[in-house]
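FAQ: What does a multi-protein file look like?

Like this. Sequence, then tokens, then the next protein.
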Amino acid sequence: MPQEPASTPTALIIGGCKGIGRAIAARLARDGFDILASSRQDSQDVVATAELVHQAGRQFTLLTFDVGNREQCRAALAPLLADAALPEVVVYNAGMARDNLFAFMDPSEWQDVIRTNLDGFYNTVQPFVFGMIARRRGRIIAISSASGQAGQAGQVNYSAAKAALIGAVKALAREIGRKGILVNVVAPGVISTAMTAELPLERILPLIPLNRVGAVDEVAGAVSFLAGPDSSYVHGQVLAVNGGLVI
């Protein structure tokens, strides 16, 4: 039987200091997790996230590295690989968009998005899998996108990476489910963040049955569910938070 954690559980949120990541950090802190959050650099976003975590009475630790740089990831995450420091929950939320029509997309627009949105998943999540297997418990949650479920014109690079992330999670779920580790995806639709601030909402809202954009707290609530006890039989699934944009 899986062993129960003896102390305060820890959640590692890759890309956890702004937008959806910050909301996830705050929600999981309220759920009782100490928070480890990664960012490329220290900033006011980090300060704001730490304050939310501390308000919930939990500890906050910042890890600074570029998710696309494998060596940086290994060095930053190495201290967490010991059993006593291994996080109970790993959330992969790092992402970027460099939108363009595929016919005009230059190599950097393709590679930068794949490097961050997909390669980063391997660089930051794979190091923890063996330890979770040995301990026979853990949760892995990847933040994909409605664009990865249905595709989106002007986002061939982003849609490709987010769709591949769903495929990776489904395959990983088949590999390690028997070891007591739950692996799932949350796929947000149009969520009110800095990334979506410039979108033409007058054209987008008619496509969403709920006729509104989502809030970061609604995505964080889905992550909270998958990280908590009520999702103990949810595995290899895509939980869509999109207002009906993809049905």
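And here is the next protein:
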Amino acid sequence: MSASESWRAASEALARRLRAVESRNVTFVSGDFPVFWERAEGARVVDADGREYVDLTAAFAVAATGHRHPAVVRAVREQAGRLIHGMGDVHPPAVKVELLEALAGLLPYEEPKIVLGVTGSDAVEAALKTAALATGKPGVVAFTGAYHGLGYGALSVTDRDHFRLPFEAQLNPAVPRAPYPHPFRPPQGLEDASRPGPALAALERVLDAPGRGDVGAVILEPAQGRGGEVVPPPGFVAGVRDVCRERGLLLIADEIYTGLGRTGRWLACDAEAVVPDLLCLGKALSGGMPISACAGPADVMDAWPASTGEAIHTSTFLGHPLSCAAALASLGVLEEEGLVRRARELGERWMASLRGMAAAHEVVGEVRGRGLMVGIDLVRDPETREPAPELARRVVTGALREGWILLAGGPAGNVLSLTPPLTIEEDLLERSVGILDGLLAGAREA
């Protein structure tokens, strides 16, 4: 038995079976990846080999209320005992109405209207369609570093070439890009990203360029998630809103990653008292079931025509009963357990500890984030800030062997992306600092 098989024999067997039947593009398989999950609870995961891990990702930031929260499990079980599938846009399940009402009560609109989807990409594409209907214009300004999903509409406003280039010819060409102010890694043409002014001026230049009369909206992540846990300088999000208002453009806020408590506020936009024209939610919405939402005020959302029996934007699993029940329960847990405030307070303490630890490692260029969304930017050289993706991979692999699940994110894959459940025990976060300290020292020496 090899050294790797000694700790992941069952996962290796499952990986071989998976490779035989799944497209080779989907799941990365190597000597150490993946481990196959069997069960999870709270912040802990158990794999097919019976090994336990601490999940510092909340499974792509989805399990905000923790894996298998009792209230969510109970809601899904009870719903499954009554109705598993309905006819979402013809004869809807009653629980869809309950969810829409509950969600509407949390939104920053006087008369909100909502379109449900299954994935985050669905929510973004509903927002893009809404903007096109409301403005009569196909163009949307997106930002460098942005990630909005991989459906063709969402991919058009996603920025990473890795995802875009194979399908470039099929994407909306009316998507100019403005530089997102990444204070640690300013994009090309934006030398000063530590304050909002230069980035807002760059946005204005993009909008003033010849042929940009077809732009009707701007899509923005108030803090970038898959872009590397990037928090823009204070005033940027509010400044983008002001530019949109002055020019009669719609502001779409993609809060699929940041929304519903992740950054220590219900919405990341709340940090600057910004109310977007359209809001995209997902991930944490249900605590684990597939569901998303695009929401906005009635005067924007009513750009959609009334249904005459055949909706022009729908899907078979729209308002799926199990997902709606899970989302209702998850929203309740977020409120009743005070998880938004907990994320803010716990995140501040954890960030301070991580920064203290990082000071001893020159390979850590920056520790940044908000709430329980933290990125550790690893570099080859502290002077040049050259990304160190190979170091990040060693840390992630080393953590897996130690029983901790991390992700390497950002465009270069050099950012340790930490988005634990909002319910995670504080002692686990404290332990994680020591684990990362040792892994960074060991990975640097390797």
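Q: Is there any per-entry metadata?
A: Some entries carry free-text notes. For the entry above: The longest strand covers residues 364-370.
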